[in-house]
Design a protein that fits this description.
The complex is a heterodimer of chains A (112) and B (109). Chain A is built from no helices and eleven strands. Chain A has 112 residues and is mostly beta strands. In chain A, the strands form two sheets. In chain A, strands 2, 4, 5, 6, 9, 10 and 11 form a seven-stranded mixed beta sheet that branches. A four-stranded antiparallel beta sheet of chain A has the order 1-3-8-7, with no helix packed on it. By secondary structure, chain B is mainly beta. The radius of gyration of chain B is 13 Å and the shape is globular. Chain B contains no helices and eleven strands. Classes of the chains: A mainly beta (112), B mainly beta (109). Chains A and B meet through strand 5, strand 9 and strand 10 of A and strand 4, strand 5 and strand 10 of B.
Chain lengths: 112, 109
Amino acid sequence: AAGVIQSPRHLIKEKRETATLKCYPIPRHDTVYWYQQGPGQDPQFLISFYEKMQSDKGSIPDRFSAQQFSDYHSELNMSSLELGDSALYFCASSAKSSEKLFFGSGTQLSVL
Amino acid sequence: EDQVTQSPEALRLQEGESSSLNCSYTVSGLRGLFWYRQDPGKGPEFLFTLYSAGEEKEKERLKATLTKKESFLHITAPKPEDSATYLCAVGAGRRALTFGSGTRLQVQP
C-alpha cells in the first residue's frame, strides 16, 4: 500500500540558509499535517491543510511557511535557518472522514 | 490548552513480563485518543483510536483502554520486537493532534 512520502530524507544546511521539505500524501487523502520533533521530544504540531487551504496552525515560526498544491502534495519552506531548527520533520496525511493520521518517515534537518 | 502526559518516560521489561503504559490527558471536547508506535528515525505508526470512556481495542499483544481522564496501553507477554517509543495523542475539536512525550519501551530477551 502507498504511504506518505517525504523528501529529502536528510538535509544539511548552514545557519541563515533556506530549506524546502516536500510531502506527498497517500492517494485520496486530502489533509496534510506538519510536525517537528526534536531529539527525545514529542512531535510538535506546526500547520495543517485541508483541500489546499490552511486548516489549523500550531507553533510554526514566522520564518516558516507552507502550502498544499492542487495535487495535494505539500511543501514546508524554512528561511533564515537557526541551529534550533535542527529536528526531524514529519508530514502526516488523513482522509477528511477519518481521524487516523498516517505519518511519513520524516526529513532529518541538520543546521550547522 | 490540551495536555497529554505519559508515564513512565522509560520502561525496561524482560521478555514475557507484562506491564502497562499510562497516558493522562486534559482536553476540552475530546474527539479521540490515539496510540502510536515510533521506531528510531521513523515516523509514528498508528495503533489504536479510542473515542469514549470504557472503550477497549486490542491488537496482538497490545490492548488499549480509555477512561474520562486517562488511557492505558497494556502489553501482555512482550517480545523484543515490541521495543519502541509509544506515543499517546489527543484530538480535540477541530484542532490537530497533541502528542505526549512518549514512553520508551525496551524488552530484553
